Amino acid sequence: MTTHHHYDALIIGSGAAGLSMALHLAQHAKVAVLSKGQLTSGSTWLAQGGIAAVLDTEDSTQAHIEDTISAGGYLSHRSAVEFTVSHGRESIEWLIQQGVPFTQESDDYHLTKEGGHSHRRIIHSADATGKALQNTLIDKAKDSPNIDLFEHHIAVDLITRRKLGLAHNRCVGAYILNEKSGHVEVFQAPHVVLATGGASKAYLYTSNSDGATGDGIAMAWRAGCRVGNMEFNQFHPTCLYHPQAKSFLITEAVRGEGGKLILPDGSPFMHKFDKRQELAPRDVVARAIDHEIKRLGCDCVFLDITHKSSEFIQNHFPTIYKRCLKLGIDITCEPIPVVPAAHYTCGGVITDEKGKTDIEGLYAIGETSFTGLHGANRLASNSLLECLVYAKSASEEVKMSLTAPLDASEIPAWDESQVTNSDEDVIISHNWDEIRRFMWDYVGIVRTTKRLQRAKHRIDLLHSEISEYYSNYKISNDLLELRNLAVVADLIIRSAMLRQESRGLHYTLDYPEEGPECLDTILTPVNFSWN
For 39-91, what is each residue's pLDDT tens digit? Predict the structure, then answer.
């Protein structure tokens, strides 16, 4: 018998956005927070640099706004930028109240500077800000009697009234796979929040966690929500290059503190690409590194911070120092081998300032959403800020409607009667690998029309194969993630094919210049309808 859960709000995702919203709602509603792995398995945990906010008297809100719009290729929505930046200080003050241990220097908080920023405005907890932030929020959530935390619960699909054949469409819950029991459960709620992160796992090399498979974006698209600007995939310029390092990020703050990018022969190169050199926005630095690696045929470039004292490096970058030392790299006296890797999804599910999507009762916050903040390229450390600001604004919207009558729709149990256990799971791993490889080769840092056409042909074939597999075999985490990856890969490819210019993170050799107009790329599903 299928287990049914009933909550005032269902939050799918346990990162900074999801946990923040849960804590804002906890005094007013009964909330479920789902994590498809452990609570610490998302990308927030891996965030190193910090949170951008205007905290210094020499800085200004206007400067942060202009830096964001400039880095975003002038495609950022000014209203979204102003809204986010203006709530920066209060977001940081709220985190301090929760107990996040930000790094202090003398009697004040230490602020660092990152690429694209005109001032020091990155508040941080050494070089493990995400870990400190998430640990604090998890502890607070565990202490709240109104928040239930579910680990190893994987979203299958959203449930809407339209899917149930009912009038007045709205989201009423989701089907969730309990990985421990192997069965699908029903979570019913009048307010469903997608806080599932981005889709960087669509690429072969990524700095993100294994769970960054675009689940929320794919589910919202299937339910009938529009998505925007999916072609803008940010590649972090500096991920550690080492066979045992997997996806270890070297924070932007290393360059903010004077780290220099050098070639294998020790010569610098960023001065050839941008007057801001190492502190240019991420799209510029990533393309420069990609260019030099391909030009020289080398495996990586190097990031050198050895001009700083050993004490400074170990105090400011303890996580990076220890991780590199374990791999035999002493960053106090030798440079760090680095390569670009897929890092952040600037597009996503279209929302307003309250996190509301096209479907009533469905919200999207954090990296899952497209608010207009990031434009064609996210400014460093604006991501956690966006999570915090929109988690609060979405929670305020939900609070206003908690007194409305609950939807009494009868949600049918998940039907497993027509499926069997697969004896060919190798198909899943093969398709997963194929998607990530052709996305890296054809839809990566530098694109062409021919490459995109090849990628579109491959994803169309894989879509039908994955759909057939999904229809006939019992679902698993790997199958669900593969299904979602195929959707987001298709959305990225289609969006990239529509943008016939180079802007920000989308660079194509066939259209190397910026176009005359700043326009978003909006994709509309066939089952879309205005409420």
Answer: 988 888 778 889 999 999 999 999 999 999 999 999 999 999 999 999 999 99
Question: What is the reported pLDDT for 148?
Answer: 98
Instruction: Output b/e per residue, 193-229; b: 16+ Cβ within 10 A.
Output: bbbbbbbbbbbbbbbbbbbbbbbbbbbbbbbbbbbbb
* Final residue before a domain boundary, out of 333, 366, 400: 400
**282 a catalytic residue:** yes
Q: What is the reported pLDDT for 196?
A: 96
Name the residue with tokens 């310029």: 237
Q: How would residue 405 be classed by pLDDT, with cut points 50, 70 and 90?
A: low
The more confident residue out of 209 and 146 is 146
Structural domain containing residue 200? 4-231+346-400
Residues 391-401: tens digit of each pLDDT: 999 999 999 98
Confidence of residue 206 (pLDDT cuts 50, 70, 90): confident
CA distance 180 to 482: 20
Q: How do strand 31-34 and strand 147-150 relate by DSSP bridges?
A: parallel
Q: Dihedral of CA 425/426/430/436: which sign? A: positive
The domain that holds 326 is classified in CATH as 3.90.700.10
Residue 405 counted as domain residue? no
Which two three-digit tokens encode residue 473?
A: 């075999």
The Cα 441–Cα 55 span in angstroms is 41
Q: With a cut of 80, say whether residue 180 has pLDDT above it.
A: yes
DSSP code of 239? E
How far apart are alpha carbons 490 and 221 in whole angstroms? 11
Q: Pull the structure tokens for residue 408.
A: 């009494």
In CATH, what number is assigned to the domain containing residue 218? 3.50.50.60
The whole-angstrom separation of Cα 88 and Cα 82 is 10
Of residues 121, 170, 255, 282, which has the active-site annotation? 282
Do residues 279 and 324 both lie within one domain?
yes
Same domain? For 333 and 352 the reply is no
249 by DSSP, 3-state: which?
strand
- Three-state DSSP at 123 gives strand
